[in-house]
Write a structure and sequence with these properties.
The protein has about 475 residues and is α/β, with parallel strands linked by helices. It contains 13 helices and 25 strands.
């Protein structure tokens, strides 16, 4: 395990590692198979060959590796150089002592070297997997401060971890995740830059029409994802263990949300709250379209077991002692169903649970909320009578939603703080369910909830007990 002061890059002498291979009397190191086969393989005239040479001082040379042909990377010419090998997203960075860098991308797919890549070193040709097993490749983890590496130089960069049961989609620039469901739980880290013009409570992105951006991305005006990388479970937990005050925030996005949109939203929440623990996105396979409601419902139910596994890992193996959860829209179904299905030996304990605009049947919600209360220090429900998205959900589901407020009033559950935030407008949560994080008042309230300030009217006089002049109130209402 790496120590706290271990940096992300590890300088190695490639020639020294090659000497170790020669000293092995022509035999592959233990655990390495197929080296001889790779060396003896007949030349493939269709293969792309990349010969790495030392760049000029401070120069960066990028080689785009073919995605359709086998790739041969020849490092023989730099065998006598002192190198640093670093994995960053899907790229392999070969850095030299003159600050020159050679970028080979995409070298990695799904967290490991591509199967169609071979690497030539003196007297030997290795598969990509063999190369990575013999020569240390540092992982440029994106949550650098938590991982013990240098912090990002840009102070407006937010770093977060993620866990997802979406299928990975390797790309040239970075890995992404689709709407397709996976049987595996993948882990990783993401880095997002917050624009200079950011207003608290807003998520500034380029305007779109029918999914097409109407303007170019401008880092001074728009949130920008700077990188996404996969890590294995051990590395994920290593980062989590270094969390400030052993505190974590898990955000579960809602209906009609892509992976990238979930990353953007959590980055905005973390920046606006100035959250100091480790932020973690749990991204379940929402299709990211308003017409995919049934698909998303089934995906939410299928995400229950992966979500419980994540929470169990955080508390059991990640040393997290303060664990907050924010569930949004249909993400509430993931959280509440999962917590009710957890076996007694899971022994979960949550700090603050925030249920924002829950797209869950009211009757089902009332039953599920009992278990959530039992294992949490506090539970808060934000609801609205004017949220058009929840009204639409009610029509599709043919039943009132817990986040809606019909004429009979909001749902009331013992030991759960229900807050009517209808006064924030009919676009409060919007068609994209945004306003729980798109309003300064609610952002400030969430920060106070994390400090365990209760009841709601103690946090701000804007929350009025309802019905008026009752003690204690049945619920609270936001009043402008």
């Amino acid at each position: 395990m790496r120590s706290r002061d271990h940096t992300a890059s590890i300088a190695i002498g490639l020639v020294m590692a090659c000497a170790i291979l020669v000293a092995s009397a022509g035999r592959p190191p233990p655990g390495i198979v197929g080296t001889a086969a790779a060396q003896a393989a007949a030349p493939d005239e269709a293969a792309q060959t990349i010969t790495v040479v030392k760049p000029k001082d401070g120069e960066t040379v990028t080689h785009e590796l073919s995605a359709t042909r086998p790739v041969r990377v020849d490092l023989s010419a730099v065998a006598d150089e002192k190198l640093t090998l670093v994995r960053m997203d899907t790229a392999l960075l070969v850095t030299f002592d003159n600050q020159g860098i050679v970028v080979l991308r995409p070298f990695f797919a799904a967290g490991k070297p591509r199967d169609d890549i071979t690497v030539r070193v003196p007297d030997r040709t290795l598969t990509g997997v063999e190369f990575a097993a013999i020569f240390p490749i540092a992982d440029a983890t994106l949550v650098a401060p938590a991982a013990g590496g240098p912090p990002p130089q840009d102070p407006r960069v937010v770093e977060l971890m993620f866990a997802t049961n979406r299928k990975a989609v390797p790309g040239r620039e970075r890995v992404s995740f689709s709407q397709e469901r996976s049987t595996e739980l993948s882990f990783g880290a993401a880095r997002v830059r917050v624009p200079e013009d950011h207003k608290i409570g807003q998520l500034e992105l380029p305007a779109k029409l029918f999914g097409i951006s109407l303007s170019r991305v401008d880092e001074t005006r728009h949130f920008v994802i700077k990188g996404v990388t996969q890590v294995d479970q051990a590395k994920f937990l290593d980062v989590v263990k270094r969390a400030d005050r052993h505190t974590a925030l898990v955000f579960v996005h809602g209906f009609n949300t892509t992976f990238d949109e979930g990353v953007f939203r959590l980055a905005q929440i973390v920046w606006d709250l100035q959250f100091k623990g480790v932020p973690i996105l749990f991204s379940w396979p929402s299709a990211g379209g308003v017409l995919n409601y049934a698909y998303d419902q089934n995906s939410a139910l299928g995400a229950r077991a992966p979500f419980i596994r994540l929470l169990d890992l955080l508390e059991t193996d990640g040393n997290i002692t303060t664990l907050h959860v924010i569930a949004h829209s249909m993400g509430n179904m993931v959280v509440m169903e999962a917590l009710n299905r957890a076996t007694p030996d899971t022994r979960l304990h949550l700090s603050q649970v925030i249920l924002a605009a829950p797209d869950v049947d009211r009757d089902v919600f009332a039953d599920l909320a009992k278990r959530v209360r039992e294992i949490s220090d506090g539970v808060t429900l934000y609801a609205s009578s004017r949220d058009r998205a929840l009204v639409a959900s009610r029509k599709v589901a043919h039943a009132p939603r817990a986040g809606d407020i019909p004429e009979a009033g909001p749902i009331i559950v013992p030991r759960l703080d229900t807050i009517d935030v209808s006064a924030l407008g009919d676009e409060m949560f919007g068609l994209n369910h945004n306003t729980f994080a798109a309003n300064r008042s609610l952002i400030d309230d969430i920060a106070r909830i994390f400090n365990n300030e209760r009841p709601p009217d103690r946090r701000t006089p804007a929350f009025r007990g309802m019905p008026e002049k009752t003690d204690p109130p049945r619920y609270w209402r936001y009043a402008r």
